[in-house]
Amino acid sequence: MESLGQIGIWIPRTAGTDAVQEIEELGFAVLWLGISPSLEQARPFLEQSSRLIVATGILNVWQHDPADVAAGHHELQREFGGRFLLGIGIGHPEATAEYTKPLTKMREFFDGLDAADEPVPRDERVAAALGPKMLDLAAERSLGAHPYFTPVEHTRSARDRLGAGPLLAAEVTVVVEPDDEQAREHGREFAARYLERSNYRRNLLRLGFEERDFEGGGSDRLIDAVIPHGSAEQVAEAVRAHLDAGADHVCLQPVGHGPAPLDDYRALAKALL
Question: Structurally, how many domains does the chain consist of?
Answer without folding.
Answer: 1
